UniProtKB/TrEMBL annotation:
Gene3D superfamilies, per database record: 3.60.21.10, 5'-Nucleotidase, C-terminal domain
SUPFAM superfamilies, alphabetized: 5'-nucleotidase (syn. UDP-sugar hydrolase), C-terminal domain (SSF55816), Metallo-dependent phosphatases (SSF56300)
Protein name, UniProt field: Bifunctional metallophosphatase/5'-nucleotidase
Family: Belongs to the 5'-nucleotidase family.
Pfam families, A to Z: 5_nucleotid_C, Metallophos
Key word NAD present: no
Keywords from the named record: Hydrolase, Nucleotide-binding, Signal
Amino acid sequence: MGFESSTEKSILSKSTLSWLARAVTVLAAVSFLAGAAASRTTSAAEDERKITIAAITDFHGHIENGRWVGERFEKAEEYNPGNTVLVSAGDLVGGSPYESGSQKDEPTLAMARAWGLGVSAMGNHELDRGVNDFGERISAPKNHLDWLAANIHKAGEFSRLHDYTIRIVNGKRIAFVGAVTDGLGSVLSRSIMNDVRMDGKALEQVNRVADRLSDGDERNGEADAVVALIHEDADVIARSPKSLDANVDLVYAGHTHAVKTGRHTRSGAPIVEAGSFGRQVAVQDLLVAGGGRDARVTVNDAFGTPVVGMSAGDGDPARVINAARTTNTSLERVDAIVRRADAAARRGGDIVVSSVDEPYDKTTPKGRDGLETLIADAALDGARRTVAGAGASVGFVNPGSLRTRALDLDGDGFVTVREAKDMMALQFDNAVTTLTGKQMRRVIAQQWHRRDGAWRNGHLGISSNVRYDVRFNGADAPTVEHLVVNGRPVADDDRIVVAGNTFLLTGGDGYTAFLDGTGYADTHVPYAQTLIDHMKSRGRG
């Protein structure tokens, strides 16, 4: 019994020792883990790296602003040498002034190379000249640009378009994920959209890619920070019910030519929209500590303000950077590009089309109405000069297709080829379709929109041979009455061949009633050329 008792004590003693040993081990492990955590915290802090992103959007071939943009990019690179990435949120080309547009935006693509622009979301205007042009020319390897759009199906001419690209900057993996507006079909001609397949919604597809790059699996790609380049309005992105998730650290928006700051995703990532035409540049710092899914990313405005604007002048915060300029070779190349493009533009662009009695300034009601009527008349005249449109009776134009403030922009009493093509810089052809009288009334009525309890006129331009009255019925759609073409009343079942640009006649700018027409045909005459030919035939305007 005593032995058993002694044995029992012995066993109890071993159990106690075992427990104590385990406790010591646990305490040691806790101490080790605490030390390791402290070590990692210290290491992460020591490992924090700064990466600077400089972004433009909606440049639209405004090469006259190229030196200013180049200077801002250069200042960003001087501020954080070797650790700066230059990006665009889309519409680098398309809808461009004559100097670049007349040369299919080759001067702009050359300028992007001179800047060192390396990454861009695909905007809608990159497709102005068709999908084939994007695949064969704009996305050509010689341009050294990674084009991104995660919500476009990658095949055929989009084989060089990617969901994302990764840059190793200051030892960190920075992913850029792109997307184009979900409303692509409303801002491209139907003939072009026939060659485009959308793969889901923009924000959902950006989340899909960002989540994959942040899942800790090195086999499917991994990033330390994710920057989204989305060719969509900043407010649309910020207010979308399907928000960008926490794996997106910074968003550059575009499409609406606005300067918008102070917007954030639901998880707090800044959303910045940097205006248009190269008049603004956004410059942000990413402070990245750690790596992969455990990385910590902080975003700061590099120059104290989210967007640096051209109008800032001497107050431009980017000008206070004191780093010595190492080279101005890139700016010299930019200047040379502008000189060559301007010389080429003068050769064909300074030819006088017609003298005019008024500038057709669309900032005044009279000027706007006169301009829209003139261009609608030109669409009708141009169609009648072709086989496809010989029977046209009415011309239309959407004000959204008119790019500059005035037709006689310099007010010298003459309109040149350059001024006409600057006004109508979008790459549309003139087209025709046949409407019934009832359908034409619906088209005309669609220019009114109810906002804030009142009907607002969208000012659809209609040729001068058309007259009509409008009756408003409270909240119901307006009714077009007493429709007359060439002095003759139009019955509901009359068939009328109408002319307008390819975008408008395929439902663009919300004029979906044109889609009810029949016999749609592209005349293959650029719609700017119809204005030039019409003004030449009239002599003085």
